[in-house]
């Protein structure tokens, strides 16, 4: 069994594979290294290897790898930046500056589609990336996602306050808000949907008429109707991770 990790700045997404399939009950999201070790250890799985992608600092990543190797007596492979991987050429002038999660997502998408792709990841931040039919990464965009937009408003505008438990309910429709929660949540969502919709027009200019769209990240369901025909693949980064860190 293989433990796979997608380590963000705040959360760690994890899953365990057996014969290429996710083990039932062996996946989730945790908020600390200790929580990860505890929950995986409680499953009593026979792990043979671990691979991870991390956007944390080198020191933080090394600490996590050390904890994993000690806890489960396995070798832990960490994805690294590269100029070329599986037919995709990194489009950043400094290839190591492209976030590893973005890099693996575009590699994974290109390997699935075998054609030009637009990849949009909707998490705390929202990223979009373009890859040509020839595998050239043409660059992309980064903007705040819903959590960051919401936090900025709540932090920097004194009268913008409401119960966060209201947020899901008020997104049932997008009519103009008549309460603070409605106005903020719907306004942020409209901004997000506007950004995503704009990527479609840009993709047509950059990629031509024949390209596939991939949506990933926790907020992908909120914009899927803006992108007709888009593929929603929550574990797109893990697909790229398996390519970057193959385990026999």
TrEMBL record:
The active site lies at 101
Entry binding sites for substrate: 92, 99-102, 180
Query: GO CC annotation: what is one?
Result: cytoplasm
What Enzyme Commission number(s) does the record list for this chain? 2.7.1.33
Q: Cite the entry's keywords alphabetically.
A: ATP-binding, Coenzyme A biosynthesis, Cytoplasm, Kinase, Metal-binding, Nucleotide-binding, Potassium, Transferase
Question: What residues does K(+) bind to?
Answer: 121
Primary subcellular site in the record, as a coarse category = cytoplasm
The free-text note explaining how the cofactor binds reads:
A monovalent cation. Ammonium or potassium.
Where is the protein situated, by its record's location annotation?
Cytoplasm
Please give the cofactor(s) recorded in the UniProt entry for this protein. Answer: K(+); NH4(+)
Give the residues the record marks as binding ATP.
Answer: 6-13, 124
One of this protein's GO BP terms?
coenzyme A biosynthetic process
Q: Please tell me whether the keyword Transcription regulation is annotated for this protein.
A: no
Record has Cytoplasm as a keyword: yes
Q: Which reaction does it catalyse?
A: (R)-pantothenate + ATP = (R)-4'-phosphopantothenate + ADP + H(+)
Pfam families recorded: Pan_kinase (PF03309)
Query: Which NCBIfam families has this protein been placed in?
Result: baf, PRK13322.1-4
Record text on subunit structure and interactions: Homodimer.
Function of the protein: Catalyzes the phosphorylation of pantothenate (Pan), the first step in CoA biosynthesis.
State the family it belongs to.
Belongs to the type III pantothenate kinase family.
Q: Report what the protein is called.
A: Type III pantothenate kinase
Q: What organism does this protein naturally occur in?
A: Pseudomonas guineae
Point out the gene that encodes the protein. coaX
